[in-house]
Design goal:
The chain is built from 18 helices and no strands. By secondary structure, the protein is mostly helical. The chain folds into 2 domains: 166 residues; 189 residues, Up-down Bundle (Growth Hormone, Chain: A). It starts with 7 loop residues before the first helix and ends in a 10-residue tail after the last helix.
């Protein structure tokens, strides 16, 4: 029997340095660098060009709209034709569209918002491609759990680190130069991921993609694709609802810090939010696979809800930082469990699209939370917004427990046919 490494750090190292795993895993990191900073970078570029905040917000919003409209269709193409052509094409179009936006347009031009939409549509689907690869690679169940925990940790690292990288690049040039450089790096990463070899039988090809019988039993085809599957729809709804508190708190945190006379500490307080999530994954991650994923998922969502309520006890920016650090402990674990459930609930021939819909659910929930937070801030204040986040998180936990029966099929789902031989 193969000996399993002790400790999460050793398990991660053993997985990410394995032959035929290291290549796609690390190229995917490079290709995802633009994902977590592009909206901010676009705002900075438009402002640098002399545009108003309204114009900057419009360009950033249209980029997100393009991503929301195009990414499921792009991912469906990956599931039908394989990743190589799609990643190469998007890896070329994406930086070209952003470079054209920066260097050939200015605020008020019709071309600027059009290029923002094009760039959003052409965002390389590296997130979904890598997560679907994890589901297809010949791994043990505990190794696959570790892979999705790595994905959750990577998200936390990129959320914190990518804006810092943008800030460093801006020290040596303009916001436009920084945006162009990051988009080119992301495009190179996408092309590198496209040509990285994976084990035989892992790659989706036109011959293995199959066809949809059209009866709705597979959750493939149609406008909604994998969301035609009731368990996938339920999981996606929980993910969207769980993301609303994150958007609410994104508005409430700086407002609370500002109200307590320490606006300069906002970045530090935000960092505690991400650090707590990462430490929670490292501390508790290795014990998660001992409980069936359909059982632990609603428990983790409930733990997340309880943690969301801790900022209501804060009395200063320091106590808020502590509340966020403690309360965020389950966040990465929730995310990892979500990914495991997607890999088990979605039809094996539409995994890339399923992961794309899952990511979009979190983006939409976050955006709705930010919009609601903006509307609630003046009448309710930061504490009122924190209370709304707590209530929404509790509602998400209730839905997760109510849908536990639908998700239980994940516990008995057969392993992917191409994951055998291990």
């Amino acid at each position: 029997m193969e000996e399993k490494p002790n400790g999460l750090a050793r398990r991660l190292a053993a997985l990410l340095t394995r032959r035929q795993v290291a290549g796609p895993a690390w190229w995917s990191v490079v290709s995802r660098l633009p994902v977590y900073l592009m909206s901010l970078a676009m705002v900075l570029v438009v402002r640098e060009q002399g545009g108003s905040y309204a114009q900057a917000g419009l360009v950033s919003a249209l980029y997100t709209v393009g991503m929301a409209l195009g990414s499921p269709l792009i991912a469906r193409r990956v599931d039908r034709r394989g990743r190589r052509t799609v990643l190469v094409l998007t890896g070329l179009v994406y930086p070209a569209a952003l470079a054209a936006l920066v260097w050939t347009t200015e605020p008020g031009d019709w071309a600027q918002p059009a290029l923002a939409v094009l760039a959003g549509i052409a965002l390389p689907p590296a997130n979904a491609c890598m997560r679907s690869l994890w589901a297809r690679l010949p791994l043990r169940d505990d190794e696959r759990e570790t892979a999705y925990l790595w994905e959750a940790l990577l998200t936390e690292v990129l959320v914190i680190g990518a804006p810092l990288m943008l800030a460093v690049l801006m020290l040596t040039g303009s916001a436009g130069t920084a945006l162009t450089a990051v988009s080119v790096i992301g495009g190179i990463g996408a092309i590198g991921l496209a040509f990285t070899k994976v084990p035989d039988g892992t790659e989706v090809t036109p011959d293995t993609a199959g066809t949809d019988p059209g009866d709705g039993t597979t959750g493939r085809g149609g406008l909604l694709g994998p969301l035609r599957s009731t368990p996938m729809l339920a999981l996606t709804a929980v993910m969207a609802l769980s993301s609303v508190p994150v958007g609410l708190m994104t508005l409430a945190i700086p407002a609370f810090v500002d109200d307590h006379g320490s606006p300069g500490n906002t970045g530090l307080v935000y960092a505690c939010w991400g650090i707590g999530s990462a430490l929670g994954a490292l501390w508790l991650g290795r014990s998660q696979s001992e409980v069936a994923v359909h059982l632990r998922f609603p428990r983790l969502v409930l733990a997340f809800a309880v943690g969301t309520g801790l900022p209501l006890l804060a009395t200063s920016h320091l106590t808020l930082a502590l509340a966020l650090a403690v309360g965020s402990v389950p966040i990465a674990l929730v995310s990892a469990s979500e990914m495991t459930l997607v890999s088990l609930l979605a039809d094996g021939r539409s995994l890339t699209e399923a992961f794309t819909w899952a990511s979009l659910a979190t983006v939409v929930g976050d955006a709705l939370g930010q919009q609601a937070g903006g509307l609630l801030m003046e009448p309710a204040g930061p504490r009122g917004v924190f209370a709304a986040a707590f209530a929404t998180a509790l509602a998400a936990a209730c839905v997760a427990f109510a849908c536990r029966g639908l998700m239980s099929r994940a516990a008995t789902a057969p392993e992917p046919a191409d994951a055998g031989g291990r």
